[in-house]
């Protein structure tokens, strides 16, 4: 029967090929949407780990998460330096990473921070940032230095000791360049697969210098917890003495906090949210990510529904092809019945043909998926910031392919039943 099915398909190879291509395209779309959905969720989840709280001015959790972690969008409100000092003195705080945003380099976000970012920030499975070249801010004696993410360095075509100029605002085109203060690249981070790769990092004090803000002495960052908690008590000298009675005017976008005990997170979150000195919002990154994905649930379902509809369209095309070929194959079915082929043989032949066409389409679509992933990974990473691995099919993807095969089998029973029913009735009569 297998050879007979192959011979029959080869005899109708033109229409069979078109049907197979339609199923392949629908399979490619279905698996592609599923893989991008899963990989995007994993990439988002791997962007930050080990950070217990993210604190910013009073705003929504999604806005604060996207701005501070993914560097998407701009926060309308900022957090004062006095509030930052209050946060880092809270009992149970192990480390703190201040962040200020609002500038860019050719559309790439500039994040003003301290060396604490390179010491404490973690991503993925609690992996620390590593340098592909150079070192952190403190490795240089000058203030106007920068550390580039891996992709930022490639896009800007810069390396250690090269110079760059930051611009005010986050657009790719800016009419306000800080030309008076060029920055020297002192380090390039290793690839992380997170928004870190597409970011430019500068010292807080350097950004304050560029914007003409007064900064306290301790904004250069700290490498250990004790120093972070003690440095603000140092006396200012030189130019800082002129500001002894002047409170800092520098503001922050967000602060990442690591706690000595994660069990303290809820209590500290409540303490920060009810802080009377300033309206603040403290969020837990993991919980905020879950809420963010809930907001995208409808969009995910819409994409998957479209993919399923495309698959159904491909299978209906196969059904149409089988039904259209029945008139041409009536004599073939009648001859098979006349030589002793039973109902099971007739049914099995058409079902087998449908399965072979579907299986070939699925195989072609899967091969096309891996080809697209292999050739288009860099493009997806560059355009969408999404890393989609060309890994073997997951259990859910195999389940989806199995569902396509089952659906094809069920659909093929109708033309098979029609072929069996009409075989002896009119198959031996020549139609003029």
From TrEMBL:
Transmembrane region positions? 15-33, 277-296, 302-322, 334-352, 358-377, 398-417
Per UniProt, what is the membrane topology? Multi-pass membrane protein
For this record, an example GO cellular component is:
plasma membrane
Q: What is the lineage of its organism?
A: Bacteria, Pseudomonadati, Pseudomonadota, Gammaproteobacteria, Alteromonadales
Indicate the secretion signal residues: none
Domain of life of the source: Bacteria
Locations of Basic and acidic residues compositional bias? 220-237
Note the InterPro entries from the entry: ABC-4/HrtB_transporter, ABC3_permease_C, MacB_PCD
Q: Where is the MacB-like periplasmic core domain?
A: 17-206
This protein's name: ABC transporter permease
Provide this UniProt record's keywords sorted from A to Z. Answer: Cell membrane, Membrane, Transmembrane, Transmembrane helix
Localization, per the record, is: Cell membrane
In this protein, which residues make up the domain named ABC3 transporter permease C-terminal?
305-421
